[in-house]
Design a protein that fits this description.
- The protein has 257 residues and is mainly alpha-helical.
- Among the domains are: 119 residues, GIY-YIG endonuclease (3-Layer(aba) Sandwich), CATH 3.40.1440.10; 59 residues, no CATH class.
- The protein contains eleven helices and three strands; from the N terminus they run ββααβααααααααα.
- It has a three-stranded antiparallel β-sheet with strand order 2-1-3.
- A hairpin with a 5-residue loop joins β1 and β2.
- The longest helix is centred in the N-terminal third of the chain and has 13 residues.
- The N and C termini lie far apart (71 Å).
């Protein structure tokens, strides 16, 4: 039997929603084995299991599915319906079905993955298969995007404030040496070239310009008289105080532009 299931904690009412495209019974045995060995990939579920005990959890089949292609679709339906990735409601970590979004590997697991991937080369055939698989994937709905965004809010980037060691920089540089550019032999479409030229324009010719040269000269003249500051000038010309500051210091809108 394939389909959707949930692992329910009877004491708290919290639960985990999962799916299996092979055998729900087999999937439960896998969960049970990992939880008993204290090695389950989901730390939320494992902590609850350790705290309340095995006898407190029920394995419940939510829906039996005939078509394997519908398994992930239906799992996403239950995730959206129950929002069990919310810590207050359930034990799921990922808001997207069949995804590892939000899951953090243990350091030991990271080392094992790194060791397994070292020196591994992906063949051109495999690359093509991966590319086709991604293209076939159905587009992510706006609702799912919103939930993914909510799941990331407040999360601090793992590399925030971390500088790359010199040894690592050298390794990256050595690995990239001699590697052909992905742009080699390719030319940009004319439409893209035109857009890039428009963006590169400076002064009042720029597509992002909010002012004209006459207005810029006016700002400089008014500021030079000493009767008005950056903020009032910004309000007068509908630009930010920082924009005015850069203009009067000639950091932007230089005359040679």
């Amino acid at each position: 039997m394939i389909g959707i299931y949930k692992i329910l904690n009877r004491t708290t009412g919290k639960f985990y929603v999962g799916s299996s495209s092979r055998s729900i019974e087999g999937r439960w045995i896998e969960h049970l084995s990992d939880l008993r060995r204290n090695s389950h990939y989901n730390p939320r579920l494992q902590r609850a299991w350790n705290k309340y005990g095995e006898e407190d959890f029920d394995f419940i089949v939510l829906e039996e599915i005939k078509d394997k292609k519908q398994v992930v679709v239906r799992e996403q339906y239950y995730l959206d319906y129950y929002t069990c990735y919310n810590k207050k409601i359930g034990y799921n970590i990922c808001p997207v079905a069949n995804s590892t979004l939000g899951y953090i590997h243990k350091e030991e697991t990271k080392r094992k993955i790194s060791k397994a991937l070292k020196g591994r080369e992906i063949s051109e055939e495999t690359r093509n298969k991966m590319s086709k698989a991604v293209k076939k994937r159905p587009p992510v709905s706006e609702e799912t995007r919103r939930k993914m965004s909510e799941a990331h809010k407040g999360r601090v980037a793992w590399n925030l404030g971390v500088s790359t060691p010199e040894e690592v920089r050298k390794k990256i540089s050595a690995a990239n040496k001699g590697r052909p550019s992905h742009r080699k032999g390719k030319t940009l479409p004319e439409e893209v070239k035109k857009k890039l030229k428009e963006v590169a324009k400076r002064g009042e010719d720029s597509v992002r310009a909010k002012l004209t040269w006459d207005q810029v000269r006016q700002i400089r003249e008014l500021y030079s008289k000493g009767n008005i500051g950056h903020r009032p000038l910004g309000k007068m010309f509908n630009v930010s105080r920082d924009t005015v500051r850069k203009i009067v210091r000639h950091e932007t809108w230089k005359e040679e532009e």
